[in-house]
């Protein structure tokens, strides 16, 4: 995974996120859709899956 990639949380996640930054074990992600209360946050890389349609 790289900065700018689209991902989901887990293999069955329905929400789409963009990777903002990556360090050794975590990624900063933010939702791709505008929604009230949406904000960037960190997730472990092992918990993210590439976005596929």
Structural features:
single chain; 53 residues; globular
Could you please describe the fold and organization of this structure?
By secondary structure, this protein is mostly beta strands. The chain has one domain (6-50). 0% of the residues lie in helices and 43% in strands. It has no helices and five strands. A five-stranded antiparallel beta sheet has the order 4-3-2-1-5, with no helix packed on it. It is globular, with a radius of gyration of 10 Å. The chain starts with 5 loop residues before the first strand and ends with a strand. The mean pLDDT is 95.
Q: Which residues sit in consecutive blocks of at least 5 with pLDDT less than 50? A: none
**Mean pLDDT value:** 95
> What's the total count of β strands?
5
Please give the radius of gyration in angstroms.
10 Å
Main sheet summary = 5 strands, antiparallel
Specify the number of helices. 0
Shape: globular
- Which bin fits the share of residues in helices? under 10%
Structural class: mainly beta
Beta content comes to: 35-45%
Quaternary structure state of the chains depicted: single chain
Number of domains: 1
Please report the distance between the alpha carbons of the first and last residues. Answer: 17 Å
Strand order of the largest sheet: 4-3-2-1-5
List the helices and strands in order.
EEEEE
Give the topology.
Blueprint: E1 6-9, E2 17-22, E3 26-31, E4 41-44, E5 48-50
Antiparallel strand pairs: 1-2, 1-5, 2-3, 3-4
């Amino acid at each position: 995974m790289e900065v700018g990639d689209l991902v989901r949380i887990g293999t069955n996640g329905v929400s789409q996120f963009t990777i903002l930054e990556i360090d050794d074990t975590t990624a900063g992600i933010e939702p791709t859709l505008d929604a009230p209360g949406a904000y960037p946050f960190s997730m472990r890389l092992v918990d993210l899956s590439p976005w596929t349609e």
